[in-house]
Amino acid sequence: MMQPGLYHILFISTALFFMGVYGFFTRRNLVTMLMSLELVLNSVNLNFIAFNKYVWPGKMDGLFFALFIIAIAAAEAAVAIAIIINLYRNHKSIDVNDAEDLKY
């Protein structure tokens, strides 16, 4: 079985990135926007791991960056879900347009 090359992995990463950006800008639901943001972060992780494997195979820098991004994404998701739950309790909606009173 043939192993995927760098260009194959970068193509998948680019597709994930643009799906995440499209989902973030077109959806009005906070949960789907959070999932789209996670897609973007996963595409960045895929880039780090691909470049680590194919460009600098002896180093572990890309893997450490990917682990750091996973930890940051987990903390970000926990805080975002807590905000979404609090918004739902107060407004009975998780639509972005209903969250405009959080600006001030």
Structure description:
This protein is mostly helical and 104 residues long. It has a single domain (6-102), classed as Helix Hairpins (Orthogonal Bundle). 74% of the residues lie in helices and 0% in strands. It has 3 helices and no strands. The chain has helices at residues 6-26, 30-54, 61-91. It starts with 5 loop residues before the first helix and ends in a 13-residue tail after the last helix. The mean pLDDT is 86.
Number of strands: 0
Residue fraction in strands: under 5%
Report the end-to-end length measured between terminal Cα atoms.
57 Å
Structural class category: mainly alpha
The CATH C-level name is Mainly Alpha
Q: Give me the CATH fold name.
A: Helix Hairpins
- Radius of gyration, in Å, reads 17 Å
Report mean pLDDT, rounded to a whole number: 86
Question: In total, how many domains does the architecture comprise?
Answer: 1
Listing every helix as H and every strand as E from the N terminus to the C terminus, the arrangement reads: HHH
| Helix amount | over 70%
Largest sheet: none
Q: What is the 3D form?
A: elongated
In the CATH hierarchy, the architecture is: Orthogonal Bundle
Task: Note poorly predicted spans.
Answer: none
Please, how many helices? 3
Q: How are the secondary structure elements laid out?
A:
Elements: H1 6-26, H2 30-54, H3 61-91
Explain briefly what this protein structure is.
The protein has 104 residues and is an all-alpha fold. The chain has helices at 6-26, 30-54, 61-91. α1 runs antiparallel to α2 and α2 runs antiparallel to α3.
